[in-house]
Amino acid sequence: MAEGKEYKFKRCPECFAHLPSHYTQCHKCGQKVREANKYGIAKKPIDWWGYISTLGAAIAFVVYIWYFFIKGK
Q1: Does this model's pTM top 0.90?
Q2: Which of 1, 11, 45, 67 is deepest in the core (most CB within 10 A)?
Q3: Strands (E), 5-71
Q4: Cα separation of 26 and 35, whole Å?
């Protein structure tokens, strides 16, 4: 909370529904939410599976290019 200000409600970052401050998931859209920022809008949690899968796909692509085009020469 910004400067000691505590909100009773927060807003979902996806659908802007009003949520009590202790909710961890939006009741309308199902989006997981964290604490509110200084404007009262809830923060989104970090999508670690998305980052890990993207990194894995990038590594697989680089290995594919190396194996079939660079090593194959």
Answers
A1: no
A2: 11
A3: 9-11, 18-20
A4: 12
